[in-house]
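Title: Comparing notes on inverse folding

I've been comparing how different people in this forum approach sequence design from structure. To keep things fair, I'm posting one structure and asking everyone to reply with a full sequence. Here's the target:
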């Protein structure tokens, strides 16, 4: 099977600020970053249905749907064959940075290229295997509901919720970021049978220190208040004024005394002068 196309690193930055952490960057309104790892896969542009674009693996077992004007912006699934129902499904809402989705799609592309069907593997019975990158990054366990596991980031602006045995709640794992609200809370929800390594790969993106580029005007104020913002292009150094330049004018370097010989380079100070011929009478 062909290997995934390499991801380019010289694409122009689309934005005027860098947002850190990137899970507070929100969605820029397009999914280019999430689709970049599978840009070489077949694209299907649909005129009807909830998804405007569906990208599939060449054998159609992995499907990545994009609904550009819906709350559930991404629907990602995998099935044992091209015509069977999905074995697992991941739903990503409209506030989620596509840079986080890229971590999942990149892992799916690699799994498919390896040809071992790892994207259909049974999940680990141990919940920590799905969120190991978060535990390693210092996310702390919170909440005390029986049958659930919750972790929170050190800044308390992101977290993960795992339902292990609560029958009154939907099974699965949900990564979230941002304050509650229709325009601020990012959510990535994995169904119960999602392979653990896919959740872990997505969770690792929440700990990635790489900032996300955004247009400052499009960033939700509540997200901007919680994130660190830096200009994409640093401000230019101030232009020196005439007053700054005045001390430099008219100053000449001192001329060393006695260090520059006045004679030819062929004659040294110790060389004897030629004898003067005797005068004729």
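Reply #1:
Here's my take.
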């Amino acid at each position: 099977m062909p290997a995934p196309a390499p991801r380019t690193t010289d694409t122009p930055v689309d934005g005027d600020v860098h947002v850190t952490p990137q899970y507070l960057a929100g969605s820029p309104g397009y999914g280019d970053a999430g689709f970049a790892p599978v840009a070489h896969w077949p694209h299907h542009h649909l005129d009807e249905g909830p998804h405007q674009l569906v990208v599939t693996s060449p054998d159609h077992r992995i499907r990545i749907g994009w609904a550009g004007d819906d709350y559930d912006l991404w629907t990602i699934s995998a099935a044992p064959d091209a015509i069977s129902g999905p074995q697992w499904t991941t739903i990503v809402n409209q506030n989620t940075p596509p840079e986080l989705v890229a971590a999942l799609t990149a892992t799916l592309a690699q799994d498919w290229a390896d040809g071992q069907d790892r994207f259909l593997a049974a999940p680990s019975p141990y919940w920590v295997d799905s969120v190991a990158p978060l535990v390693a990054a210092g996310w702390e366990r919170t909440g005390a509901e029986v049958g659930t596991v919750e972790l929170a980031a050190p800044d308390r602006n992101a977290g993960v919720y795992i339902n292990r045995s609560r029958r009154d709640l939907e099974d699965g794992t949900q990564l979230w970021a941002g304050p509650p609200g229709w325009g601020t809370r990012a959510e990535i929800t994995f169904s119960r049978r999602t392979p653990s390594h896919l959740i872990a790969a997505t969770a690792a993106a929440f700990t990635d220190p790489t900032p996300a580029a955004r247009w400052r005007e499009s960033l939700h104020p509540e997200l901007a208040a919680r994130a660190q913002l830096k200009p994409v292009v640093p401000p230019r150094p101030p232009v020196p004024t005439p007053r700054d330049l005045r001390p430099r004018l008219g100053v000449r370097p001192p001329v060393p005394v006695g260090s520059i010989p006045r004679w030819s380079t062929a004659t040294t100070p110790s060389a004897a002068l030629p004898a003067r011929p005797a005068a004729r009478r």
